[in-house]
């Protein structure tokens, strides 16, 4: 089984970024949504990005907006991967995919249909919880059944929404994602990562990986 990747979102400083990478994260998320308590200015984000190893993916998180604005911010920050929350049609994701690795976020609200993911073949899919006001970092779990159904339509599926060390093993078993995304579940405060919580989360993902590997060999 291909190893499950770990994305830790809401990074606001280089120290936390280094801790995440040292513990085994493959992706870090930098939030460019001004209304988020984890918002980071693109110029500050660039200072973090420049400290990252070449094999670590820095992901710029955006809510709504147009392709030009996203492109400008991403280039200023030095990120080559953009994560899009909101009403982004295939035309915009297709345009951005010519320059960036694109992650299209989907919320499991009552109108979500897993087959919608197939409309974005040039994007990875991030399945998150729905919240009327917030875009990520809500601490709420998404609908794992819907996330598992979306797996059939995704080139690469990232499971998000309320994950922590206590539930990520069950989430992996239920959904079988390619990657898991965590934010508030490893924080002591918004934008401040807790090293012990990070350690426990990574260990839980690794344990779930071993269990899945063992099952695949049976």
Question: What features would you highlight for this structure?
Answer:
7 helices; TIM Barrel; 10 strands; eight-stranded parallel beta barrel; alpha/beta; single chain; 34% helix; two-stranded antiparallel sheet; 218 residues
Overview of this structure, please?
The chain is α/β, with parallel strands linked by helices and 218 residues long. The protein has one domain (5-217): TIM Barrel (Alpha-Beta Barrel), CATH 3.20.20.70. Helix content is 34%, strand content 21%. It is built from seven helices and ten strands. The chain has an eight-stranded parallel β-barrel with strand order 1-2-3-4-5-6-7-8, surrounded by four helices. It has a two-stranded antiparallel ribbon with strand order 9-10. α3 links the parallel β3 (57-63) and β4. α1 (14-23) runs parallel beside α7 (195-217), α2 packs across α3 and α6 (168-175) runs parallel beside α7. It is globular, with a radius of gyration of 16 Å.
């Amino acid at each position: 089984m291909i190893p499950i990747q770990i994305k830790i979102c809401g990074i606001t400083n280089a120290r936390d970024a280094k801790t995440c990478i040292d513990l085994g994260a493959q992706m870090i998320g930098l939030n460019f949504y001004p209304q988020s308590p984890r918002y980071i200015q693109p110029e500050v984000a660039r200072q973090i990005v420049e400290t990252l190893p070449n094999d670590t993916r820095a992901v710029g998180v955006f809510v709504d907006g147009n392709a030009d604005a996203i492109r400008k911010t991403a280039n200023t920050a030095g990120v080559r991967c953009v994560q899009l929350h909101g009403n982004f049609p295939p035309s915009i994701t297709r345009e951005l995919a010519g320059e960036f690795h694109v992650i299209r976020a989907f919320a499991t609200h009552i109108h979500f249909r897993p087959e919608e993911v197939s409309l974005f073949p040039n994007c990875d899919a991030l399945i998150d919880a729905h919240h009327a006001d917030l875009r990520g970092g809500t601490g709420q779990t998404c609908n794992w059944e819907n996330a598992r159904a979306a797996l059939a339509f995704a080139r690469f599926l990232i499971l998000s929404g309320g994950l922590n060390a206590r539930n990520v093993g069950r989430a992996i078993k239920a959904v079988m994602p390619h990657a898991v995304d965590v934010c508030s579940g490893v924080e002591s405060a918004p934008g401040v990562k807790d090293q012990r919580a990070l350690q426990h989360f990574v260990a839980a993902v690794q344990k779930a990986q071993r269990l899945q590997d063992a099952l695949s060999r049976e």
